[in-house]
Amino acid sequence: NSARNGLLYDFCSVKMLFCLFLSEDLQFSGPANGAVGGSVVFAPDNPPSTSINIVQWQFGSTLILIAQSDSTTIVPEYSDRVSFDINTLALELWNLRLNDSGIYRLTVVPSAGGQLTGETSLQVFEIITNVRLISPEESLIEGESSANISSEGTGSITSVQWMKDNSPLSPSNSIIFSSDNRSVSISPVQRSDSGEYQCTYRNPISSETATLSLIINYGPEEVSIKGEDVVDLGARVSLSCSANSKPAASFSWKINGTDTDVTTDTFIIDYTDFTHSGEYICTAWNSVTKRNATQKHALLVKGGGGGGGGLSSGAIAGIVIGVLVAVAGICGLTDLNYADISHFQKASGERVNLGNKSEFSTEYADVKHGGKSRAPPPPYGSQVSSCIH
C-alpha cells in the first residue's frame, strides 16, 4: 500500500507540474463493444514515441491501474480482470459485466514532459438467444381473419427487423407494428399475406433470426370445366374440373340435377349413350373456408352414321310390310304379292336400303290377310298390285 500511495503521489505531483503544458489527445479507433463474459482491448492509435514516466487508466472516476516503465499497480477490484502492455499502452479487460459499460480514460506523462489524454467508451451487451415467433393458432381465412405475430427472445436487444420472403416488411393500412416493433398485426388477411416471415433481434455483438410460415386460406373460385361439348354415340368422354383454392378443393358432380358418386376432379364416361346428354355440374368445396362454387357444362351425344334414326333395316322392312298389309285391306285386295322392296325414301330425301339383293339370306315374315296363310315370298323382281281408284 505504501508503494502504491507513493506512486499515486508521484503521479499527482507530475500532473500538477505539467498541467500548464498544452496536452495532446490520444486517439482511439472508436467505441468498443463487448459481450457479457467476453473481453475487450483498449489501445490508443497514436501512442507517444518518447519514453514514458507514468501511465494511468481510469473507468469513469474509478482508478484501474498506474504504471511506470518498470512497474504496474492494479487496484484490487480489477486485479483478476485486467492486463496491461506498457509498450502499446493497451488495457485488456475480461470477464465483462453489464456494469462495465461506460467511459475509459487514458492519461500519459511522457519523460519529455507534457500530458497526453484520450477517452474511449465500452458498451457491454448480453448475447441474443432463444428468438422465436408466435403465430395464431386458428386457421386464417382471406377477408375474414386477423393475424397477430409476436416475437420474443433473450439478451440485450437494440433493434428488431421484420422481413417477408426476404424483403423488408413495411407498415400499411392492414399491417401495423407495435411500438417496440416486436409484434405485427395484419387485418384483414389477404392471400398475398401468405409467405415466410422473418424477425431478427440485433445488438452490436450478436443477432438471431426466427422464421414463421403464414398460410392464408381462400376460395374456391374461378371454377372451370374442360372437355368435349359434342360427341358421337359410344365415344369416350373426359371432363376435368379445376378451381383456385387454398387448400385444394374437393369435387362432386351432378348430371341433369342428379347426384353422382364421382368425387374427383375428373368425370369419365368410357362409352356414351343418349342418356349421357345433358347438363353436368361440378361443385368445388373448401373444407377450411367452408365455401363452395359451381360450374356447368353441356354435353350432347349424337347418333352415329346408321340410317333410320337408330332403327335397323329389318325393323324398317317390318314397318313397310305392315303398311302394305294395311293398304291391301283398305283396297279390298284378296291377294297380296310381296314386292321387290329394296329401299324407301324418308321425307328428308334420305334413302334407306332394305336388304341386300346379293344376300340370299334376306328373310321376310309371312303376311297373313283375310285369315289365309300365304306362300313364302317370291324372289326379287315380282311386282305389287296397285290400288287404283
Automatic annotation (TrEMBL):
Domain Ig-like residues, every copy: 129-213, 220-294
Keywords: Disulfide bond, Glycoprotein, Immunoglobulin domain, Signal
Species whose genome carries this gene: Sinocyclocheilus grahami
Recorded superkingdom: Eukaryota
Taxonomy of the source species: Eukaryota, Metazoa, Chordata, Craniata, Vertebrata
Gene3D superfamilies documented for this protein: Immunoglobulins (2.60.40.10)
Region described as Disordered: spans on this chain: 365-389
One Pfam family recorded for the sequence: V-set
Protein name per its UniProtKB record: Ig-like domain-containing protein
Statement: the UniProt record of this protein carries the keyword Acetylation: no
